[in-house]
């Protein structure tokens, strides 16, 4: 419990990581996180399919990630205003 | 890490730092609050403060989900854990947060059945494995984490799991932001909006900040280039005479958020009349409780919760750290009586806490004339 420099949030060991879907079985998906397979719930992103990248937090997928958003330097120009 | 490497590019970071330097007015102090604890952690971890001109001051906000839980709620959770037949499950950090009677980890050492889980779904699975016990998930967190609890409750109902319950302490982001914005003498000029909370609630949720309080917002992702870009967006708004909510995290965050996540929260939870926040006091309609339809999975309906209220230790200045009034090193017990190994205040517990992040990454870089803990 003394890891002072964790890569992930130690609140949930899962700082909303971006993970690629390997397989989907109903409302469960197998995702690849740092080379490891993990099972997550896709109740909130039921359209998830193999190859998608999902934002995952506390065992569930919150959203699909757009993996083609352009170079970061351009992203500022693409920032959307509310 | 795949998909994020370009957001850690030193070349892009230097370019953005240069742009930021060109957008500030020499001699001014422009204060930007990063609301989210994940941002605080990233800022210290990547040393972003060193890249910024002295005119830009980063102020750490209240967005660490562990840090805002008052000591009394920890004691309430300990009381639940000490009930016969109860297994209390929660995230790792919550086990270390000190309450008035020690932490959940210490309660576990005394014999209470306290388990660490990564997800509320793990707690639900634990209930299936322990049919003779009731597994209670001690739920904390903002709108990022509430959907996981909501999905778990919906599954518990669908599976008719009788021995699972939730002690709900989920909080919402708008009320503490309003509380900060209404602080007399507020010295925050702009906000870096939380990325993952916004995935759920959408960027439109922050429109009240420019509209009612005249401060711009840039919702940001978590990599160094993301954060620098968000600061540049905020400064560009000022240079162009705009004040609005902008979304830097366009690869994930939508204006409207995730409708399914919001619906799951709404189906299972409702706003409480009030909730006590560490450092911010009691804020009306700022936290969630389970709806009556989920009473059979609601620990607050199934058990008597003491509702303990405990003053923070006098030496602890977490409240002022959480509201951006002081920096971590300005607290008298930082790094001495309060360390990540033996935290006195919540800001030192979670890696997202400003004090823990500064302790891990920043303290050794401060000049010797300002010694840590002085």
**Helical content band of chain B:** 25-40%
Helical content of chain A stands at under 10%
- How is the biggest beta sheet of chain A arranged? 5 strands, antiparallel
Find the structural class of chain A using helix and strand composition: mainly beta
Kindly report the average pLDDT value of chain A: 76
Q: Tell me, briefly, the overall form of chain A.
A: globular
Number of strands of chain B: 13
* CATH-defined architecture of the domain at 17-66 in chain A: Roll
Strand content of chain B: 15-25%
Number of domains of chain B: 2
Question: What descriptive keywords fit this protein?
Answer:
heterodimer, A: about 80 residues, SH3 type barrels, 1 helix, about 40% strand, B: alpha/beta, four-stranded parallel beta sheet, 14 helices, 13 strands, about 35% helix, globular
How would you concisely characterize the structure shown here?
The complex is a heterodimer of chains A (82) and B (374). With 82 residues, chain A is mainly β.
Architecture overview:
- Chain A is mostly beta strands and 82 residues long.
- Chain A has a domain at 17-66: SH3 type barrels (Roll).
- Helices cover 9% and strands 40% of the residues of chain A.
- A 5-stranded antiparallel beta sheet of chain A has the order 3-2-1-4-5, with no helix packed on it.
- In chain A, strand 2 (28-33) and strand 3 form a beta hairpin.
- The longest helix of chain A has 7 residues, at 72-78.
- The model of chain A is unreliable at 1-14 (pLDDT under 50).
- By secondary structure, chain B is of the alpha/beta class.
- Chain B has 2 domains: 1-314, Rossmann fold, CATH 3.40.50.11740; 318-361, no CATH class.
- Chain B is built from 14 helices and 13 strands.
- Chain B has a 5-stranded parallel beta sheet.
- In chain B, strand 11 (274-277) and strand 12 form a beta hairpin.
- In chain B, helix 1 (10-23) runs parallel beside helix 10 and helix 6 (146-159) packs across helix 11 (259-268).
- Chain B is globular, with a radius of gyration of 21 Å.
- The model of chain B has no long low-confidence stretch (mean pLDDT 90).
- Chains A and B meet through strand 4, strand 5, helix 1 and strand 6 of A and helix 2, helix 5, helix 6, helix 8 and helix 10 of B.
């Amino acid at each position: 419990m003394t890891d002072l420099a964790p890569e992930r949030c130690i609140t949930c060991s899962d700082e909303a990581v971006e993970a690629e879907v390997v397989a989907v079985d109903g409302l469960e998906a197998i995702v690849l996180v740092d080379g490891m397979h993990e099972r997550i719930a896709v109740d909130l992103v039921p359209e998830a399919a193999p190859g998608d990248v999902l934002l995952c937090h506390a065992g569930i997928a919150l959203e699909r990630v757009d993996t083609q958003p352009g170079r970061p330097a351009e992203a500022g120009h693409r920032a959307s205003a509310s | 890490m795949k998909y994020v490497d370009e957001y850690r590019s030193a070349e892009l970071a230097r370019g953005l730092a240069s742009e930021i330097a060109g957008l500030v007015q020499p001699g001014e102090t422009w204060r930007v609050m990063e609301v989210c604890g994940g941002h605080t952690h990233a800022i210290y971890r990547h040393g972003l403060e060193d890249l910024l001109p002295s005119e830009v001051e980063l102020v750490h906000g209240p967005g660490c989900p562990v840090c805002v839980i008052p000591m009394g709620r920890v004691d309430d959770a300990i009381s639940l854990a000490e009930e016969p037949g109860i297994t209390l499950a929660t995230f790792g950090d919550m086990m270390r947060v000190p309450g008035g009677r020690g932490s959940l980890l210490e309660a576990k050492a005394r014999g209470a059945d306290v388990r660490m889980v990564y997800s509320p779904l793990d707690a639900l699975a634990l209930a299936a494995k322990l049919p003779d016990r009731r597994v209670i998930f001690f739920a904390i967190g903002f709108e990022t984490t509430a959907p996981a609890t909501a999905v778990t409750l919906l599954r518990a109902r669908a599976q008719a799991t009788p021995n699972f319950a939730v002690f709900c302490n989920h909080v919402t982001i708008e009320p503490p932001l309003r509380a900060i914005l209404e602080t007399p003498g507020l010295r925050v000029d702009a906000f870096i909006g939380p990325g993952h909370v916004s995935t759920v609630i959408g960027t439109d949720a922050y429109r009240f900040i420019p509209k009612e309080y005249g401060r711009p917002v840039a919702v940001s992702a978590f990599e160094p280039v993301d954060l620098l870009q968000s600061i540049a967006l905020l400064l560009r708004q000022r240079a162009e005479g705009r004040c609005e909510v902008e979304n830097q995290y366009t690869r994930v965050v939508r204006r409207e958020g995730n409708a399914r996540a919001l619906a799951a929260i709404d189906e299972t939870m409702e706003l409480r009349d009030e909730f006590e926040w560490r450092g911010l006091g009691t804020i009306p309609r700022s936290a969630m409780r389970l709806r009556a339809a989920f009473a059979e999975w609601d620990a607050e309906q199934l058990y008597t919760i003491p509702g303990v209220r405990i003053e923070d230790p006098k030496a602890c200045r977490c409240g002022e750290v959480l509201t951006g009034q002081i920096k971590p090193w300005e607290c008298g017990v930082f790094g001495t009586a309060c360390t990540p190994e033996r935290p006195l205040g919540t800001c030192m517990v979670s890696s997202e806490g400003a004090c823990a992040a500064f302790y891990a990454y920043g303290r050794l870089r401060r000049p010797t004339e300002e010694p840590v803990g002085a």
